[in-house]
Records
---
Amino acid sequence: MESFPQFVYESAWRNSRRRQSERFSTWDIIHKYGADYKLIMVGDATMGPYEITEVSGSVEHMNDEPGRVWLKRLTDHYKKAIWLNPVREDYWNYTASVNITRQLMEERMFPLTLDGLERGIKALR
C-alpha cells in the first residue's frame, strides 16, 4: 500500500510521518507493478480543484505536473482501476474536485459502503 498527498503526484510514501524524507517515485510504482495489477484509490477527493488541475497546485509541495496528469498515467497503465470514496454518494455532486476526479476515473468512483465495494469489485473484473 502506497500513500499520496491529497491527490496523486510524482511521488508516494508508506509512512505519513516520514513523507518528507522517504518518498519514492510514482513512476517506480508503474514500473514495478505490471498492468495486470488492479488499482484502488481510496479518499474523499475533496480539495481545491487546482490541486488536481494545476502545476504547483499541491498544498504539500511544488508539483511540476498537475495531479490529473499522474492519475491519467496510472489509469492508462492500470486499466482495472477504481476510486473508493468514504463520503456519502449523494453529496458528491456538490464538490467540484469530486466531480473532476469522477470524470478522470471515467465514473469508476464508488462509495466506501458494502454496496459500493460490491459495485467496485464488479468494475475491476
---
Amino acid sequence: MKMEDVLDEIKFELTGGLLELEIEDTVIIRAVQKVLRELARYYDETKLITVPFASCIDLSTFNSSTVVNVYRTQGYGDTGTSQADQLIDPVYAQQWMIFSNGGTMYNLQDYVLNYAAWSTMGQIQNTLSTDLDFEEDKDTGKLYINNRLNTSARITIKYIPKLQSVEDIKDDYWADILMRMSIAQTKLELGRIRTRFTLSNTPWPMDGEKLLEEGNTELKELREILRVHTNQTFCID
C-alpha cells in the first residue's frame, strides 16, 4: 500500500471523481497519519528475523514495537560447537536403532527410563532457569534472552513492527481497516470545516452536518471491530 493509493481512494469516495475537495493533500495525509497512530495500538501482524545469538540483542535496527517470541534455529542433534549443543533426545535416538537394518527392541526399557530421567532433568532445569525466557527493555531497546544450555549460533525473533507509514502495512485486512478509518477521519475534518460558518444566502445547502454524523458513526463501528478482534494482551506485573 502507498500513500498515493490512499489519497486517490479518499478523494474518489468523497467527490465521486467529479468534484474537488477544498482541503489540500497535506491535510488528508495528516488525517491518515492520525489513523495510523491509533491503529498501532491494535496492529498485531508479526515479522520474523534471524540474527546471531547473544544474551543481549539490540532491537534499534529492527523497528520493533513488541517482541512476541524467540526460537532456536537448530534443534537437538544439530552440529554445534560444544557438547551441550549436541544433546540428543534418547527416544529419538532409539527410534533410529529400532527401524534401522537389523534393529531390535532390545534394551528399549533402558532407553525409556533414560528418557524419563532426561525429561525430568529438563523440567527441573526449566524450573530453576527457563530456557529461552526473554525480557524486552523498552527504554534501551534491548532484548535479553536466557539460555539454559548453549544454544545455536543464530536465533529467530518474532516481533510486531512499528507502524510508521502506510507502506508498512502489507496485510489486506489491515489495509482495508486503514482505508475505511482514513475516509471516516477525513469526513470529520471536512464536516468541521463546512459547519464552521452558516451561510443562509447560498442556493444550495452544505453537507457538513451529514459528514460529521457519517464520520463519527463509521469510526465508532470500526473501533468496536478493532476492540472485539484485538489479539494483543498487556500483562500487569
